[in-house]
Design a protein that fits this description.
849 residues; DNA repair; MMS19; globular; MMS19 nucleotide excision repair protein; nucleus
């Protein structure tokens, strides 16, 4: 009855319902001759071509129909239907057919092994297409594992042995060719199925590949070693036979790969790694592994080979030392490797030790305390040890992964936060009036950048953070000379510790989480005070304001009323600032607090709105504010709008408040811009702010004219800023020239972002090509502009050529080719190269149209 209902069904909703019902009915049926009848009924719908119309809310999709149909085909043996689609010429159809085939083959093997094999072998010839290659290799691995699981000798003979016979020629005769490499990848996927499959593959091709590995032809030898290593690597998965199928070839492989390693061939190292790293048991003697490990370690120490060889050697060494089966070798070699890792220029040794830690918790428990001890001792002794140790520590944390991160705090059963707090204490162990004080501060400052990265990755609110906050609480709140010195070197670590605060408290109980939040909120005003104190260096003031931002964003107990009080206090001091440096420092702090409040939203969003109004008033009040004040206000709005985090709409909310006033200010300033006029000063800060908004708002908002005044849009404002900046160069005070460069860079970055969007977003430039193109050409040639700025202007031209309206560009083609020809004489090579690229694009565009 259901089958009858399927016949001729064209309504996708009814078809989906019928297929779902049929799948439920087929679930419990035993084989009994009904399969062919069902297959004939459903195969007429394969492949699914239905696409729902835009805005369709019926819930029927191509994917849902395809999923139900494939399930039906799987239950009735519909593999051959999919095989036909896999033979299509088009890549998309072939890929879809292969994905369907993988589903339809299912959990049990159908009776036609040779058909599946021949289809995959044919697709193997399309391996230059990555999508096809990925699908084929996935199916091969699935099938090979099913063969091994079911111990299906028919499939093993047809699929595995048949594939080896077919591909043996490509592998043995020319392994470096495209066909040879794809054949090796095919066979390596077969070996992933298990030991018996691997044994058949190795018996077919291993000896030929080993013979080529010792060939005098280095290219062929490397290709053969790479292929054999790939096949060896495939045997790591689920070996269920003993002895290991690699064992008969291991001695010859060691000799061959050693020869390649001796001549610094990367392929030899990678192949040897595949040979050694085949758990659950080694296929070579322990002394052979140790001898090889020491030889590549020696090459790493000497550092005279090519960088790619040394990198491969370090990865190989790390993988070997991270395996339990080689623990005696690890025990003997690890002290030397640790010592080497802590000596200055030791990048490859660090890679090896990080790789070993990533593979083994046991190795991590040995390595981490040693490196940690070196960091703390180095910071205390004011020597190079702190810097070298911190470099090793950050590499270990970044590359060692979960094993390393989870071992902070003493590892299993250790006390939370002890290690990281030890680093902070070592950094803060400044002795007043001591000869060591200056050296210790210098050494600490050299180590801090690496330690910041460590703290960002490792510190978690439910683990190390409470102890760190408790320690810094005393230093921050007790304002004396010694604590100020401590903060100068350590406060950035406190800020880094707050990185994961927004993610919540993890498994902390509610009381501990509230206590932590309350402690952090208590630090807001002291941090605010530090960030405004110019006796601290810029790094410390920045760290204080960033820490404050993270507390506002992440703390659940910060109240809007409290933030309003903090903001009000800063705003009051802005009205009576002493000098421009103090003003700029306070404005940056105000912008960061406002941005954090905006990201948080809710009641705190009102605090952000007030901050935007204050900053907007500073940059747009042409009557009451000095020119420098307006510039500072514009930069403050930039600091606010560029902040990361929060939801998708807080920037639009800020723009709706600020941009109308900004554009009116620009419009008023552009009414008189003669060289002897000072009217341009009215819009100086506003143009800077407009550039920051154009860089930060969603492209759609800018391109759709969502931000404009009565007679100006944002693009016009930026273009006017460029023209005005060029007109004013060389005039005014020296600091003014730097501020105009900010205007130029801001506008160029905005144009690069907008022109790269393409499509309908380019409509924002309609009507302005005749002004924009000459302006960009001018800045691409201008020698007084930075090299990055020249390249930026050329990038904008390149984007316009790719995405702009040719009819508009055509009018300026003669000028474009002439000016770009002049840029070819630019003194900097990178500018000349970019100019050649852009000019060629415009020439091709002209010929094509």
């Amino acid at each position: 009855m259901i089958i009858d209902f399927l016949l001729g069904e064209k309504d996708p909703r009814c078809l989906l319902l019928a297929l779902k019902t049929l799948n439920r009915k087929l679930e419990g049926l035993k084989e009994g001759g009904w399969e062919e009848e069902v297959l004939e009924a459903v195969m007429v719908y394969y492949p699914i071509t239905f696409e729902p119309p835009p805005g369709d809310r019926r819930g029927v999709s191509n994917e849902s129909l395809r999923r139900e149909l494939n399930e039906c085909l799987r239950k009735v043996g519909g593999v051959k239907v999919c095989l036909e689609r896999c033979e299509e010429e088009g890549e998309d159809e072939k890929v879809k057919g292969l994905k369907d085939l993988r589903v339809v083959i299912g959990s049990s093997l159908p009776p036609y092994a040779s058909d599946v094999r021949d289809c995959l072998l044919q697709c193997q010839e399309s391996f230059f297409r990555d999508n096809v290659k990925s699908c084929v290799l996935d199916i091969i691995t699935d099938v090979a594992r099913k063969i091994e699981t079911e111990d299906n000798e028919i499939w093993r003979k047809e699929f595995v042995e048949g594939s080896v016979r077919y591909l043996k020629g490509s592998v043995s005769e020319n392994p470096e060719s495209v066909n040879g490499r794809s054949a090796v990848e095919f066979l390596a996927s077969v070996t992933k199925g298990g030991g018996k499959n691997a044994g058949i593959v190795l018996k077919g091709v291993a000896e030929d590949l080993l013979d080529m590995c010792v060939s005098d032809d280095e290219k062929r030898a490397s290709a053969a070693a790479t292929g054999l290593g790939l096949i060896f690597a495939g045997t790591k998965s689920d070996l269920i036979v003993s002895p290991n199928p690699i064992s008969p070839y291991s001695d010859a492989a060691v000799l061959a790969f050693n020869k390649l390693t001796s001549s610094n061939q990367v392929a030899g190292v990678i192949a040897m790694m595949s040979l050694f790293c085949c758990p659950p048991e080694s296929v070579v003697e322990l002394n052979v592994v140790e001898e090889y490990s020491r030889s590549i370690f020696g090459k790493i120490v000497e550092g005279e080979a090519a960088d790619d060889f040394l990198k491969a050697s370090s990865i190989c060494l790390g993988n070997i030392l991270g395996l339990e089966i080689y623990s005696p070798v690890t025990t003997r070699m690890l002290p030397q490797l640790i010592e080497r890792s802590l000596n200055g220029n030791c990048g490859h040794s660090l890679t090896a030790i990080s790789k070993a830690c990533g593979n083994s918790r046991g190795v991590t428990r040995v390595v981490l305390p040693e490196i940690f001890k070196k960091v703390c001792e180095g910071l205390g002794e004011a020597g190079e040890g702190g810097k070298d140790g911190s470099r090793a520590l950050v590499e270990l944390v970044k590359e060692g992964g979960k094993n390393v991160v989870e071992n902070f705090g003493g590892g299993e059963g250790g006390e939370e936060g002890v290690e990281l707090l030890s680093i902070v204490k070592s950094l803060c162990s400044i002795l007043p009036d001591s000869d060591l004080e200056e050296k210790r501060v210098a050494a600490g400052l050299e180590a801090v950048p690496n330690l910041i990265e460590v703290f960002k990755i490792v510190v978690r609110p439910n683990a190390e953070l409470p102890a760190i906050v408790n320690y810094f609480e005393n230093i921050i709140k007790e304002d004396d000379a010694l604590n100020r010195k401590r903060l100068n070197v350590s406060l950035p670590l406190f800020t880094a510790s707050l990185t994961k605060l927004e993610g919540g408290g993890g498994d902390m109980n509610e009381g501990d989480w509230t206590e932590l939040n309350d402690a952090l909120v208590g630090l807001v005003k002291p941090l605010c005070k530090i960030s405004r104190n110019l006796t601290y260096c810029l790094d410390v003031r920045t760290a204080a304001s960033e820490g404050l931002m993270r507390i506002v964003k992440g703390s659940t107990t910060v109240q809007a009323s409290f933030l309003k009080e903090v903001v009000k206090e800063i705003v009051e001091t802005l009205k009576s600032f002493k000098d421009i440096e103090t003003l700029g420092n306070d404005v940056r702090l105000l912008a960061r607090i406002g941005a954090a409040a905006a990201c948080k939203g809710g009641a705190e969003g009102e605090v952000a709105d007030e901050v935007v109004r204050v900053l907007c008033g500073m940059c747009c009040d042409s009557e009451g504010n000095d020119l420098k004040v307006r510039v500072v206000g514009g930069e403050g709005l930039g600091e606010f709008i560029r902040s990361e985090g929060g939801g998708p709409f807080w920037r639009q909310r800020a723009a709706s408040i600020a941009l109308p006033e900004i554009m009116e200010s620009i419009e008023a300033g552009l009414e008189g811009t003669e060289e002897n006029s000072s009217d341009y000063q009215k819009c100086f800060g506003s143009i800077i702010a407009a550039g920051h908004f154009a860089q930060s708002l969603p492209v759609k908002v800018v391109s759709k004219g969502g931000v404009s005044s009565k007679s100006l849009n944002l693009v016009q404002c930026l273009m006017a800023g460029l023209v005005l900046a060029e007109k004013r160069k060389g005039m005014g005070e020296p600091w003014e020239a730097g501020a105009w460069e900010v205007v130029i860079n801001s506008a160029m970055l905005s144009f690069q972002r907008l022109t790269s969007a393409g499509g309908e977003d380019m409509a924002v430039f309609e009507g302005y090509y005749e002004t924009l193109l000459p302006t960009l050409l001018h800045f691409s040639l201008r020698n007084s502009y930075s090299v990055d700025g020249n390249v930026l202007a050329l990038d904008c031209l390149k984007n316009i050529a790719a995405n702009g309206t040719f009819a508009k560009i055509k009018k300026s083609l003669i000028l474009i080719n002439h000016r770009l020809g002049l840029v070819l004489g630019h003194p900097r090579r990178e500018v000349r190269m970019k100019a050649v690229e852009v000019r060629n694009i415009f020439i091709l565009l002209d010929r094509k149209n």
